[in-house]
Amino acid sequence: MKCLRLHIFVSFLVACSTTHGASMPYEAWRLGFSAPHYMEVWIETTDVVDIKGQVYRRAMSGNAAIQNSPGNLRKPKGWPEKPGWGKGKYVTGADLPKKIYVRWQSLVEPQTYQMGIDIPESAREIMRKEENAYCAADGKWITGYREALVVGLAPGGVAKLWALGPCLTPVEITRVHAEIDPRGPYEGESGGKHRPLSAVSKAYVEKFGVPYGSW
Question: What range does the record give for the signal peptide (predicted)?
């Protein structure tokens, strides 16, 4: 009888762990960042809080990947239907995310933004769900997960979040409008000086401007 009660108790703990997402079906999830073409971004810092309450500081920093919109080769207007994985890395040791904090410089404006992205449980369910997918590149069917989150950062402080997986259709999670960081770049430690915009992006913006409202 004691063994039976112990078995039931252990089964209950396992069920609760699965229900509340205390673990994930892969070793680590990936966090990436991208920006519309020419709309260069410098990420000062990204901090992640996972569902266990653990904080992972500077999970990502540096340049965001530049990404084209579908049908608009080398034009920045709008978000792509199928975003890439962006520039990033795996958040090793972390459980699935609860919140992601980002502070970045939008170099075409220039302006410094900060935001916190709340990750809903529905997004974590998407990341846990196993799916079959056909990979056209090698003509094979695979079983995989949407183990990556990519954040698109655009001028005006607009951000969009997707969940992605190898050969799986991207799923849009949320759209966030960040606030301006009144301290300016580098928390006010650079005397208001942002990182320089590349000559190519500067020339584009001077000629065509920034397509605010398209993101």
Answer: 1-22
